[in-house]
Amino acid sequence: MRGSDIVASLAPQDVRRRMEETLRANASRPLFTGVAQEAPEVLPHVYSSSMVQGGSLSQFGTKYARPLGTTTHDYEEYEEIIIPPAKVVPPRKSERLILVNELDDLARGSFPGYSSLNRIQSIIYSTAYESNENILLMELILQGKTDVAMLTILRVLNQHRLPISPSSPLHASIDRNAFQIIYVAPMKALASEIVRKLGKRLKWLSIQVKELTGMEILSDTCIACDMQLTKSEIAETQVIVTTPEKWDVVTRKPTGEGELASKLKLLIIDEVHLLNEERGAVIETIVARTLRQVESSQSVIRIVGLSATLPNYLDVAEFLHVSRYKGLFFFDSSFRPVPLEQHFIGVRGKPGSTRSKTNLDRVTYEKVSELVQQGHQVMVFVHARKETVKAAQALKDAATIDGTLEDYNCEEHPQWTFFRRNIGDSRNKEMKQLFDLGFGIHHAGMLRSDRNMMERMFEARAIKVLCCTATLAWGVNLPAHAVVIKGTQLYDSAKGSFVDLSVLDVLQVFGRAGRPGLETSGEGYICTTEDKLVHYVDAITSQNPIESRFISGIENALNAEIALGTVTNADEGVRWLGYTYLYVRMRKSPFLYGQFFGVLFYRMSRDDVADDPGLGQKRNFLVMTAARRLASVGMINLTDKTSAFSITDLGRIAARYYIRYASIEVFNKEFKPKMTEADALSMLSMSTEFDQIQVRESEMKELELLMKKVPCDVKGGTDTSQGKVNILLQSYISRLPVEDFALVSDSAYAAQNGGRIARALLDIAISRKWASVAAVFMGITKAIEKRLWPFDEPLRQFDLKAEIIYGLENSREEYSPAELASMTPAELGNLVRLNERHGQALRNAARQFPTVTMASSLRPLGSNVLKIAVSVTRNFDWNVKVHDSGEPFWLWVEDHEGFEILQFAHLLLREPTNSLDVNFVVSIPTDIPPPYFIIRFVSDRWMGAEDELHVSLDGLVMPAPSDSHTPRLDLPFLSRSSLRLPVLEDLYSARLHDFNAIQTQVFWSLINSSMNVLVSAPVSSGKSLMGHLAIWTTLLLHPRSLVLFIVPNRTLAAQSLLDFRAVSNALDVGIESSSGEGCFSPCRTSTIRVITPSGLLEAVDQHNLHHANYPSLVVCDNLEQLDATYELSISLLRHTTQNHPTRYVGLSTSLNDPTDIASWLGVDPMALHSFRPTDRDQSLTITYQTFTIPHSAALFKSMSKPAYMAIKSVPSRESAIIFVPSRSHCRTVAQELITQCVLNTETERGFLPEFVPSLYIEDSSARLQDPTLVDFVTRGVGIFHSGMSKADRNLILELFAEGVVRVLLAPRDACWMLPVRAGAVVVMGTQYIHLERDGSGPQLRDYSLVDVVQMQSRAVRHDAPGHFFLFCQAEVRDTFSKFLAEGLPLESELLDSPVFEKWYKERRRDGSIRNKQDAVQALSFTLLARRLVSNPVYYDMEAGSQNEVLSRIVDRLDESIL
To answer: Which of 765, 809, 807 is nearest to 791 (CA)?
Structure first.
């Protein structure tokens, strides 16, 4: 509805008219209709003494009535509401307690010390342990739910048991690698307690239980913060206890920690009622993601929700996909083992005023005094450590004035003297003084021994009143008759302000009231301000329905899903919202959620709800509004026409580092390419994550003192929250002491989040290729993580004694760690004015400090493209304790001004790796080249571990621009009859009607002349066919001739033999495969000999060639794959046949400069045909999609959705080929693609076309020798690689040709043996893992350009357009796009080859090369001789004539021999 319509509908006359219509309708309605109302639904597991089953609200009310018997009392100082204990629900006839000895071995051993399960556990036992039903357990008492969680955990263990011998221990039967269980606890303190409890109970089964709660995110290889786990620790842990926020972070990552989600079998969410609080949006996010994972992976993930009682529990059950008849369990306070009387007290006076505080002290004393006089023990809960002593002192003072102090005295206790003696050993003065008066204190800041002593004394009733913080309620099971919560305001460092005590804490504290087995009742008091009284009464008695808070964080949640690839358009976003609690509540209360959404208004009328019961329009509105906001700040790309979403680098960084959308808005305004440390810290402090931190008057003095001590200027000073955050961050790094309690909390919060946000800003700077600011944020990030400034001594990062560091920092000269490492222990001892032992410790640290040596060489690849080959060599001693499994670092090339990052790489040094080789490809301006580049090495973890290398471009000689490309002429196509050889025309009549444009243009040179020819043309342009025709023409016109056909490898040789034999019989031409020996033997008939370069080298290297049968024609195919052996063999053949009329024809894909290749083959410029890749006749669309995720399982997980979309972009009957790095990737990617297809088509057929009968696919699958391929083939997906049997390969190709297999997956190396083409070809990643034979560890390598071009050729078809999709790392996109558009670079590899060195040594040894002149003459026939002149820098040579540079090469070779 438009805004004008809304205003019109609120006009007075319209309002009056609607009221009159309603009154008339009500007046005409009978008072009694005689129609019975439908009885409320009775659910089997809802146990309540006061609430109506079903949890639905009344028609006109928004809350339930308070429990029966509730009374309200008004006093001058306060108002008190008393709720009596609930009546006990009697056991049902079917109820009985489950005895532990009735359980099986697995369960019985996990309940040590138990004789039976309690009533609630017994009721839920069969569902929890004997089924996989999702469960929602709601109980007000908050007791024993850990045992219910234990039952569901044991269910998972029981389902993953393997058969073992009877003599083996039970734990040996559990397959611990097959599952993982996640327990989501609301806070770190509770998580630690859960880990302790579960770990102790499951230890006998060798089950690992660990905590994962740290929120700082460093890198995939470096995890270093509180309660974090390494990747190996995660893999070895079966039960992980985490927080909602951390689990959200984990599941945003497809691998690493995110691999947890793939093995997940059970997700336990504690305190589900937090949905109603601000953090509820996170719970909705993780549940929705889990439910979608269940759907997408077709796996079983059980969800168990544990909660306090809720009025609208049916809504929560629906959200968690819990059956209301099987998995929903509701137990109210009537199930408490000790009935609880609840007192809600609202003190009068303005909150925070003196009157309010005085009344709070007074009412607390009155209630405690009454209870003590009745002989009861009392726990008084306060919300700060210092307040425990203050509260106890206030009670003591009030009792002294009242004359009732003796009531608290416990000296008559039989053990009082014993305890008095024990407490004398404590150094806590307040604790000693208070004990004598019958008071105790307890908080987490006390010594563990003192806390234990207080717990023992209170349990023994040697203390009447214990003043404590809520940590006692969470961490220790120490009950009392009565608990009193004094005040409900506590400081929340996460929000930087005072907040209300959570309902969760109140329930936990009330759970400590009453002593089971010792008392028949308990009392709980909560003393709050008058304005909060109703809030706590309603919350504790479950009168208000819990609502969704999801809209408040919808932009952040949507961005995370788009980054994961689970939401790629508006329709998927609508479906995603359907899994949230927001959707459940919107359907139940549509008008409540038909309100302002940010700056937009979406009003929902009754007709809207009736017309759209699924709220599709409302959900679409929410998704598109959030998407437009994300697009406006550059976090996603949004295509309005199709409502398609794709993530940007900025959005991916925000999702990974848990950065809010609002913070990205701030960063976009403030981020500049050049910033000082002060600017960077100022921007970081503006992050909305710190919005909660407020400036308080009481802190100003201390903040001003701190500001004077910190090194960087603080913008805004102490008057703004940003200035305060800035000061606290700098103080934290500088290790300055902070006194104020609230400031300490704020400082911890700022530091915890500052490191994470700084990491995000670092990644943003690198993604924008801003070199200067990236270096700044690299320093700030490590400064926060290490609490060390860049100007501090870097060896502080080691655990060295303080006197060593002091001596080092106060030495006369400043030494780098590398310089210290080169000194002797004695020298170092003298340097720090200590002994040699201290010097040795310092030397060990210096030698372990990460340092490297960098070297570079320049390799021009064209007139304006330069490859910088960088070698990084490790120069430090490896220590696993110090360096863990690897040292991550950044390596980048920046311009000489230090302004722009031209290329970058994130690498990992491992212990076996001594050096890493990295290639950077950069563009060189042709007008004014820069004087130098800077290569920068920066450790990702170590402050001060960085280095730079200046790469001078002085004297750099780049190759001249090539002008040898042949323009494609607009000629009429020649017909097949142009061959003028009827026999050939007949043989090719089925394959050839007319020659295409390129074939027509090269026809005369190849067919009608005897010139040497080089054809460099796009892939699949028909050049191979022209080469074959040139061969047949030669053999038909010159009988008994010999033709050599040279191909780079055996795979291509085998394919060429098949092609030639298809024609040879009709022409009476012999086809032979030559291995070298007999290559030049006489021929009885016209013969084609197919040979590889290694075979040819063996043949031409023989010494008896003067009587050889030299070939009439030599065809060099696939010259783009020219290696040292190929070049040397052709060069020697050219040298050998220089006096014989042998014709040479070279064929290659498009090259960026084929001039020297042509010269090497003796090709006249008229016979050089060099076409650009864009000159092809066929239609080919090239699409690039870049990724910033490192090479890992996460990368391929994130590529699966785009790959599926690429497949879907071609017509449904078209096929697709997917190239992946290795064989192992074939199956995982195939499964991902099938999953994507099933999700989007909602059919089990996957990619299998509808026209394929089931019987046919069954018969075809039965022919497969590898049964594991059946599941893929039956869903239209095939796998092809050399490791498969030949029969399976042929069958897969047959099914692909028939259209049965629509998607074919092949590893990188199979591109040369794959004989089929497809409408879409997708290259998923352009990097692969290479294992060195020397055992130095795996190395990440890039695909060669030649391989990528060959993969591209599989998309080029003559009868239909093709689509080529290249998924690659962002930094290599420009390189691939340039060379795929302009042609491949080709250089000689002779100098780096042992083959060439070996050949030269042998020729020198046998006298074939007698002197330098002979050597120069022999080398003059190589491509190397020509490239040394055209591109000398590539070979580390100075420019000169051919004889000059060859002379230098010969000198270098002779030196190596000597």
So the answer is: 809
What residues contact 681, with CB distance under 8 A and at least 6 apart? 712, 726, 729, 730, 780
- When pLDDT is cut at 50, 70 and 90, the band that residue 475 belongs to is low
Sign, CA torsion 783/786/789/793: negative
Asked whether 170 and 106 are in contact (CB, 8 A), the reply is: yes
Cα 814–817–822 angle (5° rounding)? 100
Q: Which token pair is 1379? A: 């060379």
Contacts with 46 (C-beta within 8 Å, 6 or more apart), sequence order = 53, 328, 329, 330
Q: Where are the beta strands (DSSP E) in 300-350?
A: 302-307, 328-331, 340-347
Strand locations in 959-1017 (E): 1013-1017
HEC string for 1117-1162: CCHHHCCHHHHHHHHHHHHHCCCCCCEEEEEEECECCCHHHHHHCC
Question: What's the average model confidence in pLDDT over 1311-1338?
Answer: 84
Burial (0-12, 13-18, 19+ Cβ within 10 Å), 889? buried
User: Could you report the per-residue pLDDT of 1392-1424, keeping only the tens digit for each?
Assistant: 889 998 998 888 888 888 888 988 998 999 999
Q: For residue 381, what pLDDT is reported?
A: 94
Q: Which pLDDT does position 1364 carry in this prediction? A: 95
Q: What integer pLDDT is reported at residue 235 of this predicted model?
A: 79
Which residues lie below 8 Å from residue 800, measured CB to CB, with a gap of 6+?
A: 841, 842, 845
Could you tell me the CA-to-CA distances from 538 to 46, 67, 315, 486 in Å, in that order?
21, 11, 19, 19
Rg (CA), the chain: 40
Rounded-to-integer distance, Cα 1423 and Cα 1327, Å: 29
From the list 891, 647, 902, 781, the residue with the least C-alpha distance to 219 is 781
Tokens at 600, concatenated: 């937009």
Give the SS3 label for residue 297.
Answer: helix
The SS3 of residue 338 is coil
Q: Is 467 helix (H, G, I), strand (E, B) or coil?
A: strand
Chain Cα centroid distance, residue 1399: 50
Q: Which of helix, strand or coil describes residue 106?
A: helix
- 33 by Cβ neighbours in 10 Å (0-12 / 13-18 / 19+) ranks as exposed
Number of helices followed by number of strands (H, E) in the chain: 54, 44
Residue type, 317: A
The residue behind tokens 């890992």 is 1192
pLDDT one-digit tens code per residue, 422-444: 888 887 888 888 998 999 999 87
How many other C-beta atoms are found inside a 10 Å radius of the C-beta of residue 84? 14
Read off the pLDDT band of 623 (50, 70, 90): very high
What CA–CA distance (Å, rounded) separates 649 from 1449?
Answer: 47
Q: Are 676 and 669 in contact (CB under 8 A)?
A: no
For residue 50, the 8-state DSSP code is S
Q: Tell me, what's the pLDDT at 217? A: 41
> Residue 1031 has what DSSP assignment?
H
